[in-house]
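Give me structure tokens for this 245-residue protein.
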Amino acid sequence: MKRGKKSQTTIFIILAIILVAFLLLFFLTKKDVLDLTALKVNPQVKPIYSFTQSCVEQTAQNAIQHIGENGGYYISPNNSLYNGIPIYFDKGKTSVPTKEQIEKELSKYVDEMLFFCTKNFAEFQDFEVKQDKIKTTTQIINNKVIFKINYPLSILKEGNSYTFNNFETEIPVRLSIVQEVAEKMIQEQKEFPEDLCFTCIEDLAIKNQVVIKMIDFQDSVIFTIVDINSQINTGDFAFYFANKY
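Here you go.
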């Protein structure tokens, strides 16, 4: 019996070691979980890396808020109200940005606006910083938005040179769900172009745990999908679009 218990203990120890090794390998190879770049940053230039990462996170937040206020667009399309809110349904015709299109719009925002946060690294007078073109890839999945940013930086300090390239951040916003709600609302509207199905809207709101607001505006109705489960810049995430009748 004693030998049996020892054998069992040995097996459990081996299994535990294998499990730990597997988890370690997983975390070391999963960029979404562990930012290895941060671990490798030389302490001498850590302030610049931390500053840039902070700008990445803030710009990503701003991108999501801006895209929500503009119905999925960085720059409002031609068929929009005067305040920039895009028209998704216009007398029978529909125009709803896909998830993939919104991802590209978010990337455009970060590509063009991140520079305004880093401000040419003017506050780092002791460093010589050279920047290259920013290229962002955005992914909208489940309950978050992932931004992967290639931002090549060459840094010179006291004769030593350093380089950074990749930054990443995840924003816990349910943009995927909100976009799907908007899409389903327009599908319903297309089936019944002359009517507004209030019960359908209410059912969508309850099912997806969002609040859907409506306001008449001239010959249009402005819809706001508010996700109380997603916070962006200290407020609930809101997504706007309009239908014209």
